[in-house]
What does this fold into?
Amino acid sequence: MNPLKEKEKWGVEFIIHLLRGIAVVAGVLTLILCTLLIANYFQLKRTDPLNSPALQKLVNKLDQSPQDQELRDEIRALDLMARRAYFTRRWQIRTGSYMLLVSVLVFVICLKALTMLQRKLPDHGGMRWSKSPWVASALSRKVIIAGGSALLIGALAVAFLSHSALKDEYLAGYREGVSAETPEEAPELEAVTPDEQEIKENYLDTEELKRNWTSFRGSGGKGIALSENAPVFWNGTTGEGILWKAALPKPGFNSPIIWDNLLFISGADRESQEVYCFDRNSGEMLWRRPIDEVPDSPEEPPGVSDDTGYAAPTMATDGSYVFAIFATGDIVGLDFEGTPVWARNLGVPENHYGHSSSLIMYRNLVIVQYDHEAGASLMALEAATGETVWETQRDVMTSWSSPIVVYTGRRPEVILNANPYVASYNPETGRELWSVECMMGEVGPSPVYAGGTVFAVNQYAILAAIDIRTRQIVWEAYDDLPDAASPVAAHGYLFLPTSFGIVSCLDAKTGEVYWTQDFPEGSYSSPICAGDRIYLMDKSGVMHIFKAGSEYVSMGHPELGEESWATPAFIDNRIYIRGHSHLFCIGVQDEQ
It folds into this structure.
């Protein structure tokens, strides 16, 4: 035999042997990953970090001994451990899915290369390992094609089922802060049209909007009330300081909205969904409107958790119409007499807790944050007709936070918080203005804006202070972060409430922690700044009132007399609070 051909044959034989080894390793790895992913996925489906038997047992024990601080700390630690394990497992599924796809790809490439090389290999007898019956059987074309196809389909199925998992970056990787734009590459802000230049005077900061409470956390979603002398004492049990109290026919966790003397709120359960209008001075229910016969509304409502329900999103109003959205995806516009003007279904949100993102207005547009498992989007509906003016698809996970509308000094922006992006959009067109990749987990808190900085936060993730012009994270924090309640920024401070009872006050410019306060109950309600005071309702119905300052100074802890998870509304030095069963008006009798 020609020595060159013999050398070539041995070289090809060696490559074939190497490729076979890689293919075997990739095949074994594929089998292991596929088995682990399927097992992990079904285990994840059976795991509910919010309702573990051990945690529930401790909670029941706490009900019998509410003053047991050691037991309370044990519950917090177990809850933290369960949630972290839950999120870690979701991250493992996503990462394992990618590894499975890579191993299948390597397996297929090796097989293709083997096929091409074996066609070129002279048939002069081979090396001893090439005649192994085990290798020959393992590389049978029919078995390889069938097995590889099945594994690939399995990998794709697992990846699809795991699409709601956490992004595969660690928190340390987020600290660089900027996603698509670095400070050097950040484009100039959009040119401002004359019409946009007048928006601040003609819409966002009008006195009419300021004196009304038009959406979740007030106008623009800022959490700032004009009330300088809101009450600091009342007692829901004795009735002291309660101007009126009205029963709510159906449950809900949304907040009241107010325009002039009309107060609007919604309620829903599995059977029906409704909108209510009250006279805010007397508490009389003026009308009660069932929301039914909505085109394309589902026959059966989706599953929701008890702490979200079917009417979690707060309504919105533009002064002519009121708008409500429910966990079914039904959204409706009504006039102030309760007559439906339009109704439609946006598609049932695939959300394992239930939809809770509140509505907000921008001029004549109803802004809807619709981030759920079937597809995330931000949309604007025409207030008078309900027709879609624009819709922007978003590459984010399911989010329970609500949008805010701010004026940055040069232009209006709609800002959203989700995993993994904090992002800003032009409210006129829906075009993305900027985004910062810094968030993770199941995002509940809404962002807040003050002094050129956006503050976005989520428990087990990060508190990021983002400079709105440079798109840089100027400071960050990781301790005692909220999972439901949204922060408020006022008087140069940032206030963070948690669902496990800790409230923190930070310097809004530097992130320095001035103080933390541990209350017996945590909060789902978001804090509101009224004058120089912060009002924070805890889940038991106790309002914690304290100074907006660098030291914790309590102004009182008045009790509502029933549980409350909703954020209060403030108008004319009166406070309107939704409890679990009633609507309360709190204030001084002779104040209007």
Observations:
- The domain at 175-586 is CATH 2.130.10.10 (Methylamine Dehydrogenase; Chain H).
